[in-house]
Amino acid sequence: MASVTLSRFFIFFTLLPVITHSIPFVLFHGVADSCTKKGVKHFTDLLSEWSNTQGYCIEIGNGVWDSWFMPFEDQVEIACEKVKSMSELNQGYNIVGLSQGNLVGRGVLEFCDGAPPVKNFISVAGPHAGEASVPFCGTGLMCVLVDSLIKLAIYSPTLQEHLAPANYIKIPTDLDGYREGCKFLPKLNNEFEKNATYKERFSSLQNLVLIMFDKETVLVPKETSWFGYFPDGAWDPILPAQETRLYIEDWIGLRTLDEAGRVKFVNVSGRHLDISDDDMKEYIVSYLIDENTPESPVLTKSTRQQHSSSSSGFIRKLGGQQDLQLKVIQKL
User: Fold this and answer.
1) Model pTM score
2) What is the structure's pLDDT at 298?
3) What pLDDT, on the 0 to 100 scale, is given for residue 147?
4) 119 φ, ψ (degrees, to nearest 5)
5) Which of 2, 114, 225, 328 is deepest in the core (most CB within 10 A)?
């Protein structure tokens, strides 16, 4: 009788569905976007649905306008207070960043005292090492205003205080101006005045996923998505992350994370923020659930396709500088 009962007990539990536990995630959108825009909202909902976890888009001010014109230190301060006020995040959370939103997310990770711990940071086209040109906007009224401001010195107090992207512009041939005038990126990358706390917090991540698009034109250079950039004082060659001073001298702990196998350099096919459902599931959703993640530190779409069946899928445009609306285009 005992063996029959034990057998039934075993069968009962082996037939139960496998339950995966997921911690919440927060999303920070890019410039010229907002949490209420269709693309960002749908993207957040999809990630929640596919990962079976709760996702929250953190809005800074009024969204579109403040993403352009609120200084990054103010944006990070607002995001920090919002994250700390959310009881849902008390046990930890993941961050998903879109384009410039990655810098807000990193600011929360590095600067926010008393915030809950961040487990995984998934970066989609983030200008981590800087941006050598102001992101493309368009021909609307706001863009005309931006173009007028750009005619002034990019590192002037006026632009630094009133044009958010100016806070992460890094002109490789004007490093003196960058060091003296840029108000956010040098601090974020622990570049000149080193802060051990920033490095400790950044290097505490369990996984850092860096997604770069092979047809990227908004970020200059596109390798900034992987912390690659131009060498000091020149426009060529473009250095991979591992050959930059940021990595070699381990300013923020990127080298520490990489040597521990916790950085995933992901290259996907597409333009800025154009991502397929398959790539979303493999390179974003897989890090939002508590399960074994890919072993290889370098994941490419072509490599993935060699080990899986091809799928028509969809390409999703996740809002951003060039288009505030979601575009779903079936692959040919």
Assistant:
1) 0.82
2) 47
3) 53
4) -90, -65
5) 225
